[in-house]
Specification:
By secondary structure, this protein is mainly α. The chain has one domain (2-185). 84% of the residues lie in helices and 0% in strands. The N and C termini lie far apart (80 Å). It is built from 6 helices and no strands.
Length: 200
């Protein structure tokens, strides 16, 4: 049973690492494209769809292996295992990640592909995209921290374990909001002189 648990945990960690790598590289690339004022091409759209499928596969693997780990630990430790606040925190974050992934798939990514750029989205759609992106990045990193943080088990309450979680999401959202608003303002300043010149 010990080797079975080790194997399941290994797959669990690899799935998490793959997802984090994909999400971070995608977020960094999107910020870089914002500064370059680059719009999505057909290749970018295909890459985004492939990325989305890979993250979904990693999320499914996390659910399956996570459930297997819970089952194995339950057989060893009994019902008391389910009282662990760290377990509750991880389940909450993975549930939020799953719902957030659904929003990204159904609303955010189609809107981005249609608009061609984050800056071209309407205000409401852009706010949703920024929030979902911040929630995704923070949640994957936070889940990984909880996964490797064995000393956190049983020592802290659920509220203490999740205390920094909404703060980090808010900071990520505000950072991207300031960045996009600044870039939008720069674009409007550049466009205005051109409009005046063309009118003359």
């Amino acid at each position: 049973m010990e080797f079975l648990r080790l194997g399941v945990i290994y797959v669990h960690l690899v799935s998490c690492c793959v997802a984090i790598g994909l999400v971070l590289t995608s977020d960094i690339a999107m910020v870089r494209d914002l500064f370059k004022r680059k719009t999505f091409t057909e290749h970018d759209n295909a890459h985004m769809e492939s990325l989305q499928k890979s993250v979904v596969a990693a999320l499914i693997a996390l659910w399956v292996t996570g459930a297997a780990i819970i089952g194995i630990d339950y057989l060893e430790k009994g019902m008391n295992y389910f009282m662990n606040p760290k377990l509750h925190a991880k389940v909450i974050i993975v549930v939020l990640l799953s719902y957030n992934g659904l929003l990204l798939h159904r609303l955010v990514l189609p809107a981005l592909q249609k608009a061609g750029s984050l800056l071209n989205l309407g205000f409401s759609a852009r706010m949703l995209a920024l929030f979902c992106g911040s929630l995704s990045a923070v949640s994957w990193m936070y889940a990984a921290m909880l996964g490797v943080g064995r000393p956190l088990a049983w020592k802290y309450s659920l509220s203490e374990l999740l205390m920094a979680y909404p703060v980090l999401i808010a900071l990520g959202f505000l950072t991207m909001l300031v960045l996009t608003q600044r870039l939008k303002r720069q674009d409007s300043v550049v466009i205005s002189p051109r409009t005046v010149a063309s009118a003359c």
